[in-house]
Fold these 3 entries.
Entry 1:
Amino acid sequence: MNKSSRFGQPAQKLSFAAKITARLIRHVQQAVGSLGDLWRTPFTSIMTVLVLGISLTLPATLHLFVKNAKAISEQWDTASEISLFLKLSVTDKAAQNLVHRIELYPEVAKVTYISADKALEEFKTLSGFGQALEYLDKNPLPATLLVTPTTRASQTQAAGELLLKLEKEREVQQGKLDLEWLSRLEAIAKLIEDIVVGIGALLCLSVVLIIGNTIRLAILNQKDAIAVMKLVGATDSFIQRPFLYAGLWYGVLGGVVSCICVAILAKYLSGALSELTNLYQSNFTISGLSFVEAMTLILLAVILGLSGSYISVRKHIRAIEPTAD
């Protein structure tokens, strides 16, 4: 015998598309309902969103600092500049030939030639011994080549290998590269990146704990209602969805707050930095978060919010069982 509906008509099975549509509608209703629950407790919700947003602002700002520091370091063309001192017997023509040969190196971006006469004139100007140097019989300074490696060859190891290669040229008497300074610069940059990762991981963990504790309190406040829902047959997955959506909304709102805070800090720091860069005749400005970085930050906040809420609901909703009076 066919099953009948309450009106005496044969019950029709829902199609797969209808089931999917009904499920989506149910999720949308629960998502909107969870947002309404946050609206009904504005103080708690705002405080949680602000704590989440500010917690993510620090690692995001440190990331911004690292990104801009890398941009500044890329503008330092002389960071790994190699100085080649030529032999005193090398003529200008031979030095120019050497310049052309070195320019063909794939690791070299630019070569600047400083003749012996020009080097002497600069030394007279900078040293303050101009008159005393007039009594010299011949120029004691050699011609010099300033070799700027490419970006890839500017790393410590690559720059050192390029220096050894250049010193094998027959016109070169000695080469000089401040590898120690480069090593310190790279070590500082690596240390800052490690600090950003460490602080970011700790703050992300704190966000998960904050969201988890907030959802736990919300579950305890609705303990009786949850017990009644289980009594009438509601499943744990149905009950926990509004709390999961609450964690999602906390993540979205907290991520937006974090992006706003980072933008404000970038604007504030750019004003202070402009005063500093003007002293060095530079026009560098801080670049804020890109659209992709902002969306990534919001996505990270959503993942953290969902993680905290999921951990909380899996533990506490299962523990609530209806009891007979």
Entry 2:
Amino acid sequence: MNIVDDVIRAKLHSHVLLIRQVSEYIINSGGKRLRPALVILSAGAFGYKGEFHYNLAAVVEFIHTATLLHDDVVDESELRRNRETANALFGNAASVLVGDFLYSRAFQMMVEVDNMRVMQVLADATNTIAEGEVLQLLNCRDPQVTEENYLQVIRYKTAKLFEAASRLGAILGGATPEEENAMSIYGMHLGTAFQLIDDMLDYTGNNQDIGKNLGDDLAEGKPTLPLIYAMRVGTPEQAGVIRRAIENGGEEGFQPVLDVIQKTAALDYARKCAEAEIVTATAAIASLPDSENKKCLMQLADFAITRNH
């Protein structure tokens, strides 16, 4: 991962000072680097001995960072990872344009790998992520969103890059089609569980731990799983509290919504859904040969549902 960070720093170079400033600010702001770690661990699980996995790990992080830059502009966010967002510091225009730079730099780097299968996976993933972003935008302030609709958004918007990262390592390592598919299943369900926990932390986390303000999703009118479940099983009065909060962007306050979520055990339901995703993820790679890399992939799955940030 230290080598990946070296690649990231080298590839961030631009003769345009503002690009360097914004890119370095967001890249160096303390992200977990889970997606690039998946590329490294997946490649290692299949005995890859080259160096392209470092490049592709950086590519995946650049794509992820570009989505964060654009997300924060769309959501009008002011805090991420306990720091001001890039758009709050540098402005929306700079954030959007530097996000475009990171996307294009990522595609320059993937061309260097000279593997059409790799390019196909990353091009498809980037397109799917964009679709997920638009779907989420359409779902905002809509209390009629179903659990199925919600899961489609997070599988497109978040889990798709986890899936791509896991698949890329398998491709580099010369995995069989069955093994490649197993890694993609692992990544997809890991990413889904990761987002489910993220959505729970918006109601249960600590501001310092999660690096953003509690209730941000509610303030943006995002119908996440705890809200969807609470509306489904709660009383008409409880469902009304949630419905109005989604429609009005939580203007009536965070606490009444949290009370309904707690009384309907919506967080317990969301956690059980996340745990089920992890069971599917780890089962997909259970038959891979034992190795330190496989062990780390299993530990990463456990971290996804036990973390507090």
Entry 3:
Amino acid sequence: MADYNVIVIGAGPAGYVAAIRCAQLGMKTACVDNWVNSEGKPSLGGTCLNVGCIPSKALLDSSHHYYFMQKQAAQHGIQCEGLTIDIAAMQARKDKIVKTLTQGIVGLFKKNQVTFIHGQGRLVSSNEVEIIVPQVNAQIVSADYIIIATGSVPTTLPMAPIDKQFIVDSTGALAFNTVPQRLGIIGAGAIGLELGSVWNRLGSQVTILEALPEFLAAADRKIAAAAFKELNKQGLNIKLHTQVTSASVANNEITITYQDNQEQKQLCVDKLVVAVGRKPNTDGLNTKAVGIRMDERGFIQVDQSRQTDIPGIYAIGDVIGGPMLAHKGSEEGIMVAERLAGQKSEMSYKTVPWVIYTAPELAWVGQTEEQLQAAGIEYKLGQFPFAASGRAKAQGDTNGMVRILAHAHTDQILGVHILGLSASELIAEAVVAMEFEASAEDLARTIHAHPTLAEAIHEAALGVDERMIHA
């Protein structure tokens, strides 16, 4: 008889959610995780809670308040002299939030009777996991099912090796104890833009080097163009189509050499952040030995039910590729747990929302105008600017717009793209509408409270049929 019904390897948003749902469904469940915090103690929540989603949003919020007081408060009649920022206090607040939430998962495990085992999980067979803890005898535990949820780690660059002092990854950039006077960032994706926003607001001269010729290639082109213009206006110097060839440290500064339009250039900075994406975290998992198939980039291959080539072993979250988003991994964890319990659970990747937490925020779900054109799908477009929103004007932030794409004949909503204040919250209405296969007319006929930012969605839906009221 196996020790557990289910063993989950990894306690990030995919793993801990899968473990809790398995336990709720009556399965004896264990979750194995080897993360330790700066104090050397086990810390649940994976990258997201420890060095990703949560701490970055905490710093974004702190830097936003400082930026508001420095640049915008006077418009509200608020005068402030001698404004300063205490980086140590800001970091302490961030750390407290992280600790509270990671300890919260410990409480959730206890409440749901999930057994937490600290250590490195290593596959031994189709139903056995060896748990390795430094300076402690390894133990082998068995289960009817194994769920791999080991997440991802930052991608590194050989020409800019991480030294954790001058050249850092996203983890290091969340822990600066002073504001760098000159900050370089390689990569203009969500991580690079968010980290750049934090330190730019606090006073850094930020230069972002992006290899791709297009800014945020996955986003709607008009939304991306408007965001690019606004972020540059705020002080982020974003250089596209640049190829970094080297980064060397001397005399307490980093010299970055890069190609820009076939011309070799150099940039000197005090800190350099490498934010060029993430790769699957499978080191030490022993996947090959047990026969688990992986693609050329190292992602674990799974079928429709997220089962690997080995019956009884499943994989979810970043480690299987697709959108590397915490909420996507969590939903996969719930789906797999429910399938193991005999339910016919499914999830739709067409309605996974994307968010970038700059100011203004970007959020989108579904297809872009460019994707619809490439697929030959006829569509209608409704677009409403926040400059025409009473609530946005009252809050003093009118940047951005809402764009709704609907099928030209059926009126079904195919994509919603938002740039603006609270876009991360507003996109939820679009996700719900698309989950229910709603039409633009459905949103247009839905009463939205006034004055709210959500009225911009209502107006954009009206705009699909060319009947906007306030623009």
